[in-house]
Amino acid sequence: MAGSGAFVELLEEDVYKYYFDGEWRKSASGKSVSIINPTTRKPQYKVQACTQEEVNKIMETSKVAQKAWAKTPLWKRAELLHRAAVLLKEHKNPIAECLVKEIAKPAKDAVTEVVRSGDLVSYCAEEGVRILGEGKFLVSDSFPGNDRNKLCLTSKIPLGIVLAIPPFNYPVNLAVSKIAPALIAGNSVVLKPPTQGAVAALHMVHCFHLAGFPKGLISCVTGKGSEIGDFLTMHPGVNCISFTGGDTGIAISKKAGMVPLQMELGGKDACIILEDADIDLAAANVVKGGFSYSGQRCTAVKVVLVMESVADALVEKVKAKVAKMTVGPPEENCDITPVVTESSANYIEGLVMDAKQKGATFCQEYKREGNLIWPLLLDHVRPDMRLAWEEPFGPVLPVIRITTVEEGIHHCNASNFGLQGCIFTRDINKAMMISDAMETGTVQINSAPARGPDHFPFQGLRDSGIGSQGITNSISMMTKVKSTVINLPTPSYTMG
Ligand SMILES: NC(=O)C1=CN([C@@H]2O[C@H](COP(=O)(O)OP(=O)(O)OC[C@H]3O[C@@H](n4cnc5c(N)ncnc54)[C@H](OP(=O)(O)O)[C@@H]3O)[C@@H](O)[C@H]2O)C=CC1
Ligand SMILES: O=C(O)[C@H](O)COP(=O)(O)O
To answer: The domain 270-445 belongs to what CATH superfamily?
Structure first.
């Protein structure tokens, strides 16, 4: 159970502690932040509201710990990560319980998130050993005018302190996707978890603690992003920021200093369906892509662009599937569960009402109880409706009927987002042409958008982000190249 057994030291009275210098501590602020259960809409947990002084101390300690960690052999770093991965999987149930209570993730999916996170940590350890174990050897005589008298050795070195800020929808998986690459590359980590999801993240951090990582190497600061966020992201001790979330990331990129940024932000992933598509396959993916975790995924299908000639058939099939979806509490593994906050539900409702006023066709009746919104497919959505462009981050999916492929590509590229997109067609040549024309970080052919498997590159264009994630890319991003050049007194040619 959360906050008990192996996790008992995380909790004092009813407030979860923050993690610093290898210990669980109470904040000197004496204040806490309440986490509201999206299902009951009542306070579920409390976490410490950390102070700026505590952040300063964390940064100092983190810097010292990083210097020692960078001298720890790579295989030993990997060994500790493997140990943390085992512990994460061993404690999947209490961590998943927090995800159910804090972010209303269906119980089965919550367990999957933790297991996936363990796998990500192990894979990262293995990948890190391979890619960080290799450098480059360059010789000078390949550049015009040079003899072979300079030998350049390059290797990848750590950046220092990586600030990791994940969003509410994957507070464990999108935290470890930053923590593990940072650690294997020799960095220290300061984690600021999302408020909704903070307790799951603290339990995850405890697995790293139990694995035996050195004191100070990993810290976890809790508190509202709106209060402590700017102080963290603008802190001079930070050497890299890895952020996943919404528009906050755009603001951070304007305020952060001259440090590498990895930003994974919002998306409005389009699903283009052509006349020759397998409509059963497309419908199944529209439902899975649009409604899993109630649409609260950056990679959710957020607009369907279907050719008019097959639109009726698609809409009928999707409607039939939506009718079978279960709606209710995450504990009962319902397909659709309450969205994360009341303000999120209000925002979604605003988009629905705008579409209603402008004449969209409701394939189901709009229904809401508290934060729980029933799945809704809106047909005949037009570009003048907000739903055509904004991301609801909820179980509401607009369908725009198109008469040419170009119309679909144009709509996709006119978005301020450019995360992923997908195409359904039986013609691979057409699929490749459309994929080339779509201005998104990834295009999926005949499947819904997805970040995973976690070693695949994951990136967005325009407001969807900066840089690329995925295990290999994250490890590289959290390092920089260091060169050592040996200058020989006379040119030397091997076997010459
Ligand atoms: N591209 C991607 O991979 C993903 C993108 N998203 C996008 O994120 C949004 C929803 O996630 P959500 O968690 O609400 O996103 P937010 O951007 O609101 O929050 C993300 C994180 O930033 C923190 N934060 C808030 N204010 C600041 C600040 N000023 N400085 C630093 N950190 C801050 C939050 O903490 P706190 O909770 O305390 O406010 C949270 O940990 C959607 O728009 C979605 O598209 C979500 C998941 C993945
Ligand atoms: O934040 C998100 O929504 C995730 O990055 C999406 O991950 P998934 O495609 O694996 O669900």
So the answer is: Aldehyde Dehydrogenase; Chain A, domain 2 (3.40.309.10)
Residue type present at position 78: A
pTM higher than 0.90 for the full model?
yes
**Ligand 1 mean position to 252 CA, how many Å?**
11
7 vs 78: CA distance, rounded Å: 24
Q: Please, are residues 64 and 58 in contact by the beta-carbon 8 Å criterion?
A: no
244 CA closest ligand 2 atom index: 1
Helix pair angle (173-184, 74-90), 10° resolution: 160
Token readout for 154 is: 């390059």
The CB-side HSE value for 259 (13 A sphere, CA atoms) comes to 26
Kindly write down the DSSP assignment for every residue of 154-198, as one continuous string.
EEEEE-SEEEEE--TTSTTHHHHHHHHHHHHTT-EEEE---STTH
Ligand 2 midpoint to CA 322 (Å): 21
Given the residues 113, 264, 390, 391, select the one marked as catalytic.
264
On average, the pLDDT of the chain sits at 98
Looking at the DSSP bridge assignments, the partners of residue 46 are 34
pLDDT (average), residues 297-305: 98
Ligand positioned closest to the Cα atom of 167: 1
- Residues forming a β-bridge with 376: 396
* Per-residue confidence (pLDDT) for residue 494, from 0 to 100: 86
How far is the C-alpha of 466 from the C-alpha of 459, rounded, in Å? 7
- Cα torsion for 170, 174, 176, 182, to the nearest 10°? -170
Complex ipTM value = 0.94
Alpha helices by DSSP H, listed for 160-297, are 173-184, 198-211, 225-233, 248-255, 279-291
Give the pairing type, strands 442-445 and 420-424.
parallel
- Can you tell me the distance from the alpha carbon of 425 to that of 276, in angstroms, rounded to the nearest whole number? 6
Catalytic (active site) residue 264: yes
Q: What is the pLDDT of residues 443-493, one digit of tens each?
A: 999 999 999 999 999 999 999 999 999 999 999 999 999 999 999 999 999
| Residue 271: strand pairing partners | 304, 422
Residue to substitute in 297, 420, 440, 474 for testing ligand 2 pocket (most ligand atoms within 8 angstroms of CB): 297
Domain ranges for the chain, please list them.
5-265+464-481, 270-445
Residue 442 CB neighbours (<10 A): 22
Which CATH superfamily does the domain covering 5-265+464-481 fall into?
Answer: Aldehyde Dehydrogenase; Chain A, domain 1 (3.40.605.10)
What atom in ligand 2 is closest to the CA of residue 449? 9
Q: What is the pLDDT of residues 395-434, one digit of tens each?
A: 999 999 999 999 999 999 999 999 999 999 999 999 999 9
3-class secondary structure, 23? strand
Structure tokens of 254?
Answer: 């304007």
